[in-house]
Amino acid sequence: MAQTYVHSAGAQEDVEKRPDTGLKPPQMKLIIGGLTAAAVLAVYLLLTQEATHSVLLLLGLLLGYTLFHARFGFTSAFRRFMSVGNGQAIRSHMVMLAAAVTLFAPILAFGISFFDVEVSGYVFPVGTSLLVGAFLFGIGMQLGGGCASGTLFAVGAGRTVMFITLLFFIIGSVIGAAHLPFWTDEMPNGPAVSLAETTGFGFGGAWLISIVLFGIIAWITLVVERKRKPPKMAPVPSTSGWKRMLRGSWPLFAAAIVLAVLNALTLMTRGEPWGVTFAFALWGSHAADFLGFDVASWGFWQGDNAAALEASVFADTTTVLNLGVIIGAFLASAAGGLFNFSSINGKNVAAAVIGGLLMGYGARLAFGCNIGAYFGGIASFSLHGYIWGVMALLGTFLALYLRPLFGLSVPKSKDSFC
After folding, report:
1. Beta partners for 149?
2. What is the pLDDT of residue 238?
3. CB atoms within 10 A of CB 132
4. Is 412 inside a domain boundary?
5. CA 172, CA 360: separation in Å to the nearest integer?
6. Residues of the signal sequence (predicted)?
7. Starting at the edge strand that comes first in sequence, how are the strands of the sheet with 232-233 ordered?
8. Three-state SS sequence of the chain
């Protein structure tokens, strides 16, 4: 009898219908093209920006390479757990977060950095803006086919529909930036809460609380799995030996640790953790300004953000990281012989449009996405990161009923959620 699996993209499949799990030959022309693009961008950054930008480009390349080779996702992880109870990917998140808080604690406590930058974590307010934004983001990532990081690495791998998701992610980010003062100033919102500073536990106490919470969450996923007996995750194309480092696939838990290390290096390099969606708002606002909108008058672009709007987009470190992730994923997919443009249809285009808008809008309201708010927030010992995760899971649950309307699959099992 064939073994049933949940694929990394979230859909069940019969492995006997997919016997070849090996990689194709490397796409050398694409690899050379990707390396050339990375080199040109690195030289341009060295000539026009600070030294940190070139370092961040390298970190972005490594982030994109890691994300693709492990198929390390947040969207599919949430969907698999909420639909059939498969918590393997959620447990990899807990490993990633445990490694991150272990690295972040001394960095934030003692101000450890490169280039003499001042370091600070992502600690943001808890309130209506966060609750609504994270919930919308949870729905959006299930319709759009990927989260913020997932959208970037899917674009790098040539998944055609994700270019549409990215475009409307940017548009949604601009609308969210325009509306943000209403959500933060006119709606009920509380203060930012740091488990390390606000509570008085210090970074050592906050680290211990975080590790205990991660252990509890991992234990809950195991309890759910024992009860629901979900299908396993399907294997992805892979090789063995030393070639696996270059061509993939990587184990989820190994990638989790690598991502945590790279995030910590990002924190020490630019003074704040890895983020994604600020750049989307910046790119879109530059475009809106070109079209005649007075974006400089929006509350979002006042104060600390004003300089970013006035400068080149390449001066923005988040932009550099994003470009690195896209190129890194492109190189990883080409190394595995897996880069190709996928087909699209009317229904998945509609889902990409709606999903992208919801993610862009939600990310602005929630002070970040799965990377800036969930990963970066929790790693920074911010309460808002945990609440973001809960609300995004709730948004995912609702989206499970919406996905079939757009022809998108939902994992099933004998103990189906419905």
Report:
1. none
2. 75
3. 17
4. no
5. 4
6. none
7. 12-14, 4-6, 232-233
8. CCCEEECCCCCEEEHHHCCCCECCCCCHHHHHHHHHHHHHHHHHHHHHCCHHHHHHHHHHHHHHHHHHHHCCCCHHHHHHHHHHCCCHHHHHHHHHHHHHHHHHHHHHHHCCCCCCCCCCCCCCEEEHHHHHHHHHHHHHHHHHCCCHHHHHHHHHCCCCHHHHHHHHHHHHHHHHHHHHHHHHHHCCEEEECECCCCCCCHHHHHHHHHHHHHHHHHHHHHHHHHHHCCCEECCCCECCCCHHHHHCCCCHHHHHHHHHHHHHHHHHHHCCCCCCHHHHHHHHHHHHHHCCCCHHHCHHHCHHHHHHHHCCHHHCHHHHHHHHHHHHHHHHHHHCCCCCCCCCCHHHHHHHHHHHHHHHHHHHHCCCCHHHHHHHHHHCCEHHHHHHHHHHHHHHHHHHHHHHHHCCCCCCCCCCCC
Cα 332 to Cα 68: distance, rounded to the nearest angstrom = 6
State which residues of the chain have pLDDT below 70.
1-22, 413-418
Residue 244's pLDDT is 81
Distance CA(411)–CA(245), nearest Å, equals 30
**Measured between alpha carbons, how far is 391 from 89 in angstroms, rounded to an integer?**
18
pLDDT for residue 411: 75
361-417 pLDDT, tens digit each:
999 999 999 999 999 999 999 999 999 999 999 999 999 999 999 989 887 754 333
Q: What is the pLDDT of residue 417?
A: 32
- Answer whether residue 16 is part of any domain: no
pLDDT on residue 344: 83
Model pTM above 0.70: yes
Domain count within the chain: 1
- Cα separation, 81 vs 87, whole angstroms: 5
- C-alpha torsion sign, points 317, 321, 326, 332: positive
Residues 6+ apart with CB under 8 A from 145: 75, 151, 154, 159, 161, 162, 165, 348, 351, 352, 355, 408
Dist CA 170 CA 183 (whole Å): 19
Q: Is residue 417 part of a domain?
A: no
Domain assignment present for residue 17? The answer is: no
